[in-house]
Amino acid sequence: MPSHSITVNGKDISKAFANPFVDRDPSTGPLTPRELERAMRQALAMEQEAIATYEAIAENCADPNVRERLLSIAREEKVHTGELEALLQHLDPQEAAAHSEGQAEA
Predict the structure, then answer these.
(1) Which tens digit of pLDDT belongs to each residue from 14-29?
(2) What is the pLDDT of residue 59?
(3) Nearest to residue 95, comparing CAs of 48, 49, 36, 53?
């Protein structure tokens, strides 16, 4: 099977899709608390993008079986966002207070 790569500005970024820390030297040890917080924010953004993608495809899909399955997958991604938000609040105690403040303002 041929190997496919994704090149941006002459740099192969294929591995970055599987590992956002592909350029990070693992010998430096585990992620710092700040790196871990950023990773959770990135993962949360990816889940939100997945939700929007699945819902958009479902809205434009003629096959009701495919549409329902995509909407089910989108609901699963929403569960993942809740899990990631809980992890983020654990890593950044100010996060919960900011969420509460935002909800009160809405």
Answers:
(1) 666 666 676 778 888 8
(2) 97
(3) 36
- Helix, strand, coil percentages, rounded to 5, for the chain: 70, 5, 25
H helix count then E strand count, the chain: 4, 2
**Which of the 8 DSSP states describes residue 7?**
E
Please list, residue by residue across 91-103, b when 16 or more beta carbons sit within 10 angstroms of its beta carbon and e when fewer do: bbeebeeeeeeee
What does the pLDDT read at residue 21? 72
Choose between 25 and 4: higher pLDDT: 25
User: Would you give the distance in Å from CA 8 to the centre of its chain?
Assistant: 21
Q: CA–CA separation, 38 vs 18, rounded Å? A: 16
Q: At which residue do the structure tokens 């030297």 appear?
A: 25
Residue 101 parent element (H or E):
helix 93-105
Q: Tokens 């479902």 label which residue?
A: 58
Question: Measured between alpha carbons, how far is residue 104 from residues 48, 81, 97, 99, 100 in Å?
Answer: 22, 20, 11, 9, 6
